[in-house]
From TrEMBL:
One of its GO terms (molecular function) is ATP binding. The keyword Ribosomal protein does not apply. InterPro entries: AAA+_ATPase, ABC_transporter-like_ATP-bd, ABC_transporter-like_CS, ABC_transporter_ATP-binding, P-loop_NTPase. Residues 5-234 form the ABC transporter domain. Keywords: ATP-binding, Nucleotide-binding, Transport. It comes from Palleronia caenipelagi. This is ABC transporter ATP-binding protein. Pfam families: ABC_tran (PF00005). SMART domains: AAA.
Amino acid sequence: MADIVRVEGLSKSYKGGFQALKHVDLTIREGEILALLGPNGAGKTTLISCICGITSISAGRVLVAGHDNVTEYRAARSLIGLVPQEINLEPFETVMATVRYSRGLFGKKDNDAYIDEVLRQLSLYDKRDTQVRALSGGMKRRVLIAKALSHEPQILFLDEPTAGVDVSLRKEMWQTVAELQKRGVTIILTTHYIEEAEAMADRIGIISDGQIRLVREKQALMHELGRKVLRIELAQPLTEVPAGLDTYELSLAKDGAELVYTYDVQSDGTGITRLLTALAERGVKVRDIRTEQSSLEDIFVDLVEAEGQA
């Protein structure tokens, strides 16, 4: 899969010396969904703004389909659609007029058939003659996406696309993004919702303190950094972890009715068989066992905590 965006040594500093981005290197593959995760102030929005050419860069460069986004700004920007965090729409304009206007800003010829297609895809077609002020928050977010798609970009940036949207609308938005990917649109999203990245992304990038800490295939990341938990339901509750099991990462849960064993999926052996044998030797009777894979949220929290302790 070819790279459609290349970020090389990108830095951004502001007056006063604050460095929002520090030598960021990032490649974005054509047709993928890349999720950028990071705490508030990590640099997610600044990075998107620099790639889109909205914010000037202090060092490094950005290539969009081979076009330098500074020296070939128009060519690079024409390939990009941006959905910002803030809902900033003209309240008295209709949905159709709003999207048409955005298309005109990029010098595109009128094409109401294409705009109608976009509105249908976003479930906005029945609202095309409705003033923006009459729409719900979720519908306004869809209008922002329609505006971003109005000039037929190859790349779509979504900055916190479901912020303030209820759970049902959020899931509808995920479906919309999946459909856009099927059409060949490359999508980069920032989000605070871990489940959003887990549900949609092909790759996960984690950014903190203005630096990209890692970029991995989602499944590979969960396998590489994830842990599994074995929950051992006991026939009789315990008041403490049995003696002689210090080599295992064990804890008690549910008022002593459950032993929790955490192990590394990358280790040569899980140690489960040895643990169960050791429990039997100590007269601990097991009623049931089940395993749980750590979620992306667990991995993200662990990485951020490790970064804070470094």
